[in-house]
Amino acid sequence: MQRRNHRQTSEQPEPHSHSHSHSHSVFSPSHSHGTDSAERIMAAFRGAGDRGSQITLVGLFANIGESYFRGLTAIKGAAGYLTHSAALIADAGHSASDLVGDLVTLACWRISRRPPTNAFPYGFAKFETLGTTTVSIFLIAGAAGLGLHSYHLLLHSLVDTSQSLPTGPLQEALTNITSIAPALHTHGHAHSHSHGVDPNALWFAALGILSKEWLYRITKSVAQQENSSVLLANAYHHRSDSYGSMVAFCAILGNWWWPALPLDPIGGLLVSLIILQNGASLLFGAWGDITDAGIPPSTRNAINDALTPLLASSHSSESSPSLLGLRHIRGRRAGSLIFVDLTAEVPKSLSVDAAIALEEQMTQTLKAARKEVGELRVRFHVVDQ
């Protein structure tokens, strides 16, 4: 007996980390405000199936994004401009790219949560992949622009350094390296390179470190309480943002202590590399979704482990549906969802009603263990007991 059943469901799980769904925010320094924000996030995720909770999520992320843009990003960008800090400007660019990612992800995520329709019978989950691709392109383009700007500043800093060195091999090497700097200068720069980096830029870099590190900790706390892999992944993304601010802080501090060394533009280059790594990682993951790449072996093993208890219960009770074995477990991602299909080995005596009950039991068990599973397709294969 062979049977294939295709089921659609409007139930949508939390976004997977793959989609790189942002939830960046700048909370108030008050602990009570941070706790209230965490409780609002948890309350929204507990009731993600009702419209009121979905509106709460949308409003929460929109307000956080708005305050984020008006606060930390604008402050760090203006501070970097006024204090002539390439590292701080690069860090502000990282924050701005996060804001764009928040807005794009929010729009695509809302669409992806819609139930299947006749026009989209498999749902809208791949709109989340579309958003991830867009965000990754923004990040890569931003990293290229910020890195090029810091590279220009580094070359011109090396020109000044080479002119101050006595004649010798080192001075000659720097002169050869910076021979293209005059041509690059024609593109124009926003800052005069005769000015040093203002040490006050340290305060704004420190603000970025503290806010992102605190956001990482509160997001990780919520992720552990809710056992949410996507929130945990997003928490580590906040930690990477904190690392970017740390690079900017160290670069500005080093430039203050050793002004003759071009540490600030080097810091800007390092921050740009962090952004580039994030963008490339997102694009690589989205490409796997677009090309229907299979789920990794670890996920297949987890699916098998989640359904294994049904094998034991089938043999221990004659009244329960009989599941003799599992084969050919496959899956593909569509945004935050996983679509799984497998072959279930059943005895010849299994009736159609019992097969339907078994499939329903397998679906409920798997979705309870793996929230990102959007659909399970079962093909029954008759075997001798």
Automatic annotation (TrEMBL):
Pfam families: Cation_efflux (PF01545)
GO BP term (any one): inorganic ion homeostasis
Principal place of residence: membrane
Subcellular localization(s) per the UniProt record: Membrane
Entry GO terms, CC: membrane
Gene Ontology MF term list: monoatomic cation transmembrane transporter activity
InterPro entries xrefs: Cation_efflux (IPR002524), Cation_efflux_CTD_sf (IPR036837), Cation_efflux_TM (IPR058533), Cation_efflux_TMD_sf (IPR027469), CDF_Transporter (IPR050291)
Stretches assigned to the Cation efflux protein transmembrane domain: 71-283
Keywords, sorted A to Z: Membrane, Transmembrane, Transmembrane helix, Transport
Membrane topology according to the record: Multi-pass membrane protein
Region of interest (Disordered), ranges: 1-35
UniProt KW Metal-binding keyword: no
Protein name: Cation efflux family
